[in-house]
Amino acid sequence: MKKPGGQSINFRDNARQALQNPTLRRAMRHATETFRNKRNDAIDGIPFEEWREQASELRKSIIGNINGYVDEFAVNATKRGAIVHRAKTAADARDLITAILKDNGAKSIVKSKSMVTEEIHLNKCLADLGFRVIETDLGEYIIQIAGETPSHIIVPAIHRSKEQIGQLFCEKLGCDFSDDPAVLTDTARKLLRQEFLSADAAISGANCYIANTGSIVLFTNEGNGRMVTTLPPLHIVVTSIEKALPSIDDLPLLMRLLPRSATGQVLTSYLSIISGQRMAYSTMDTKRLHIVLLDNGRSEIARGPYWEMLKCIKCGACMNVCPVYGMIGGHAYASTYPGPMGVILSTLLNGLENAHPLLDATTLCGACAEACPVKVPLLKLLYELREMRVAKGYNNTLEGVSMRGFGIAAKNAHIFRTGQASAGALWPLAGILSPVTVNRLPKPVKRTFRRRFS
Amino acid sequence: MRVQLFATCLVDTFFPETGEAVLKILDHYGVNIVYPREQTCCGKPPNSAGYRKEARQAAKHFISVFDGTDPIVIPSGSCASMVKNHYPDLFKDDPKMFRKAEALARRTFELSQFLVNVLKVHETGFPNGHGKITYHASCQLTRELGARTEPLELLKSIKGAEFVPMNNADRCCGFGGVFMGKMPEISMALADDKVDSIIETNADIVTGCDHGCLMNITDAAKRRNVDFQIKHIATVLAEAL
Fold first, then answer.
1. ipTM
2. Could you report the per-residue pLDDT of A96-153, keeping only the tens digit for each?
3. What is the CATH number of domain B131-240?
4. A430 touches chain B (CB under 8 A)
5. Chain B CB within 8 Å of residue A30 CB
6. What is the C-alpha to C-alpha distance for residues B6 and B74, in angstroms, rounded to an integer?
């Protein structure tokens, strides 16, 4: 079977390791259960299904005309003084961002949370070039000083306990140990305040951009987003093309659905709508606003059979309900985006060659599709990508052989019966070949149910 | 009324007593049962693993064996969902087979849905229940077939038994068909969680509509010291009759 070279993700080993980490398992269980309960409370007694349907239709129409919205946004944002860039690939985006920073003589950068910058591995690139980059979302700050990547798209340090964070702060920041979240937050707040005031550039993501006004929108909870996008003289927004909304009138729907689905909040704490450069009447320095719109394969995905994945609004609800994710956390997926949406998006962005083992990271239970606030048919896409994996030859060879045998037996009751009988006879042998699975199953009975009818 | 019974591979190969229980219940309600002897597998394993060709082979055979217009009863949510939801999709590029698959899907029912929605058995009134019964809501039954209330109506109406809901009843037990074999560690960890939820209820019996899940739960239970029994809903109902 043709299997082009390249390193694929060793999901099973990663998962096995995660399962052996009791702290991780406790943290994941507690956090995902809390988010599930909060979400259930937040959607109780509201016309959630109706909003989901509206949002689904809206997102569908957007993805159908994605480059039209990119163009409209670029025109309107430019009118308001922003400089809009389009990056075809991750490397293009990194080059653009680096050039903007250099042109502006920026050395010290504060960031607010952005998964798209994780996707393009921006922090490592900037650090290698000698820039000082500080993450200011508390979760991102924690994993930055720990030298880790986010394990959840909304809650990047979800895998860590407060005791672990206390130890980390103690070790890396030289403060006294505390596992009180309020004390730890205060420690980070004091250190970050200095960073906000001294940084000469800011990089943020965007939860969506609005085509008819040229605005970008941030949903945040800690206030760091406001600091990042107002204090430094240069602000670079990095976002991906599918995050369009046609009109500012569409924003309320997202405002209702996104926080409820993500964290179970009825409303986000801070909603920032940034429309172009700071106006002339501002008393502060004129701010330079650059917006980098990343494609990185999305235009092609939008044209292909799996386009519905781009409806995703990156709320993370599918992760919080996924039994597999809840058991092992995000790092086992070895991808920017973990959980059900991550399995699909990583496969589409990085290719089957790299990501095909992730397609085993699902029991196909369907909880993800049920939770999705924009009705991305996650379950259907998982089935379809598994078919694609077989069609492209990235399946397991032995599995392929046994499925072919199965297909022949399924067509003929006589062969099927013979297969059943030999399975019974060969059961001890099967137990030796595949002990983990076979020992978990009961033994086949001597007299099958069908024999009562013969 | 006459129905065709698709027993499923698991009942046929591992749990024939569940098949007997199905016969007993249907017989109680005066249903005539035809068992098409050429039946094999619905094709769920290849379909879930991405083997469309093999899934179509199984589906074609099923469609030819389960001929006619009688309802088809299946004591499994995942097999019933395979026939009802996935067969039409397998033949979406073959109009003739698609029409057949759709017609077949319309007359296919998971056992609890058949009892409640077709036979209109809302109250079994079965007299011989005993002990506390809890229920695991299997994934395809709950989310693909939408059978959220039917099994509960049946179980709650058994006299002499007490129904106790478990926490996270509709959370996956970790079976997932091929998942159990490919990701055994995660599968076992999820089954352990399910056993914890069952233990919390103090139930004497845990039941469900899918032998796949019950098999996975049985394995987790046998590695622990538990004192509940694990029975398919057909067996629970038949024993209470």
1. 0.96
2. 999 999 999 999 999 999 999 999 999 999 999 999 999 999 999 999 999 999 999 9
3. 3.40.50
4. no
5. no
6. 5
The CA dihedral of A260, A266, A270, A271, to the nearest 10 degrees, is 70
Distance in angstroms (rounded) separating the CA atoms of residues A317 and B14: 38
Closest CA to A170 of A184, A156, A190: A184
Nearest CA in chain A to B8: A449
CA distance A320 to chain B (A): 12
What is the rounded distance in angstroms from the CA atom of residue A105 to the CA atom of residue A292?
18
- Interchain contact, A410 vs B57, CB within 8 Å: yes
Q: Indicate the residue type of B147.
A: A
Opening angle at CA A303, ends A93 and A348, nearest 5: 60
Sequence spans of domains, chain B: 2-118, 131-240
Interface test with B, best of A10, A24, A406 (most B CBs within 10 A): A406
- CATH fold for the domain made of A43-299: Rossmann fold (3.40.50)
A361/B contact by beta carbon, under 8 A? yes
Chain A residue numbers with beta carbons less than 8 Å from the beta carbon of B185 are 12, 15-16, 19
Task: Convert the pLDDT of each residue in B103-123 to its tens digit.
Answer: 999 999 999 999 999 999 999
Q: CB of B53 within 8 Å of any CB in chain A?
A: yes
